[in-house]
Design goal:
Cathepsin D, subunit A, domain 1, hydrolase, alpha+beta, about 450 residues, protease, Aspartic_peptidase_A1, 4-stranded antiparallel beta sheet, 6-stranded mixed barrel
Amino acid sequence: MEGKATALVFSILLVSLSSTAFSKPLTPSWPESESQTLTLLETASETSITLPLVHRDALAFNTTREALFKLRLQRDAARIKTLTAMAAAAKKKGADLSSSIISGYSQGIFGEYLALVGVGTPPQYEYMNLDTGSNLVWIQCAPCMKCYNQTRPIFNPKKSKTFAPVSCTSHLCPPSPLNCSRRHTCLYGSAYGDKSTTIGEFSIETLTFGRTRVPNMLLGCGRYNKGQFSGSAGILGLGRLDESFTVQTSRRFGGKFSYCFVDLFESTKKSWLMFGDSAVSRTAVYTPLLSNPHPHSVLGTYYYVELIGISVGGARVPEIRPSLFKFDSSGDGGVLIDSGTAVTRLVQPAYIALRDAFRRAINLKRVGDEESGFDTCYDLSKKKVKVPSVVLHFRNADVSLSMKNVMLPVSESGISCLAFMKSDDNSTIIGSIQQQGFRVVFDVPGSRIGFAPGSCA
């Protein structure tokens, strides 16, 4: 690492999704101009840089909050499906890093939070989805032969002094005849689980976060793109493989980052994302960071942890045993922390045990809400209800969830549901709803993930 790692700090502006306003159309909220954004940064210190971000739903036009909630669950379903398919494909095909880049790590719909990032020199500001479950950093580029609609102008490489296409003969280009264009530039392609796609060329470019420039980034320049990216320009991959932003900047920021997502229903509080030494919290409880035992590197993307049990109402659920969350010999199973999945998925035996224990502890009559996709829902609009506590027991780290992590409002009538679902396979995914209100620390060189409650201030 070259000297002390500089810390990058970003703030996330979340759109209110209160249960009293599900039928109201959304109005996007972001800085009116790049100059306004940079004016806000003039007082920032050299090692702590703040940048406004938005929740991805802020880029949705002509829709209601209730419709966005249903779309969120659809995005989750697509993502979970492709996470499973990717693991199965890795076992069958023996994928390595190069072929993984070609196939693009099918990830369904990407992260839920957006960063306003300057691309090129001078910077052209673009919204990019943050995703801990993928690696490739890419945006839509002009001339765009086929592109989806995004809220900001498409990045124009001709206006950047630092844009440089990667040649087919470069060591950065995977060795394959399919990777070379007629202009001898290195190509990439990604196909996602919901049939979204991006195809383009690799380039070397400078990214800007506030006043901090990050040069020589490997960036995918998408020329043919389609799919459900909610108006963002592309993806900022934060996974564990070489082409991710995390690894590409590891010499500068040490492979350390953390974020804190505030409650989805808060419209005034800010969340943030931080890189560097300052990202590591002294007050967090830490659990070991695991790697998938399967040898194929495509599964090395994810941040795995060890879940050993769950408590409801102050008592451990006896049916939820550590063995439910173990990897098997083929790499199936495990527990991963993911910013791009909203609702936590538990393997079926664990989910059923959690659900049944929660139903017994809350002692209320359930209401049906088939459209939401949840099976444990209650009308909480008429009286105050004490919601049973839920604690996730990771190895060496107990994470106590708040009511906002446990119960999710799903309609304007006051219906709230247990914010967990069963997984369709042997994997467990800890989603962003259960991470809200915690500072989640990814300390890759320390091989650990940390949780510090109430750290979004």
